[in-house]
Amino acid sequence: MPSIDTLVRDIENLFTRDDIEITDEQADAFGRDLARLIKYRVSEPQREPSLRMSMMGEKCDRKTHFEINSKEGEPLPPQVRMKFLFGDILEHLLLFLARISGHEVEGQQDELEIEGILGHRDAIIDGCLVDVKSASTYSFRKFVDGLTPETDPFGYITQLSLYLEASQDDPRLRVKDKAYFFVI
Hints:
- This protein is an alpha+beta fold.
- It has helices spanning 7-14, 24-43, 61-69, 78-100, 137-145, 156-166; strands spanning 105-106, 111-114, 117-120, 123-125, 128-133, 179-183.
- Strands 1-4-5-6 form a 4-stranded mixed beta sheet, with helices on both faces. It has a two-stranded antiparallel ribbon with strand order 2-3.
């Protein structure tokens, strides 16, 4: 039976087994989701700066305060928007592969809130909170070696902790005391 402990192996097995069949319905749904994502990311308007869970732990509080309260926000350069789109595509792909490999994937991109601060968790897989990350080989090594506050320049540990705290009342979350990074 699939569990969070077999997730990576089960996805890898998709590429080695002959008995896996992706239905046209599954493939079409994945294609539609990707098309919506790309359409949104390419045409998304510049947002007003606001405090979000994904910003927590990344910078010092003072810098975050000035970024949010500054009226002179700069638009993201195209190459940064493309990098974010690529990360979103990889996230969708991993969650799709998790689903077709037999894992329970729920709560994808549900909006969460703690004391007025909003965020979106990536998913609950097999009852566990999961945050999907794409990483370079160098950054991936930090996750393999065990991400610590000293090796976490983007505040991923803080973000994951906030998503877990904000998800505590969700009945789909069966593991309430830990969360996972799912990194590609």
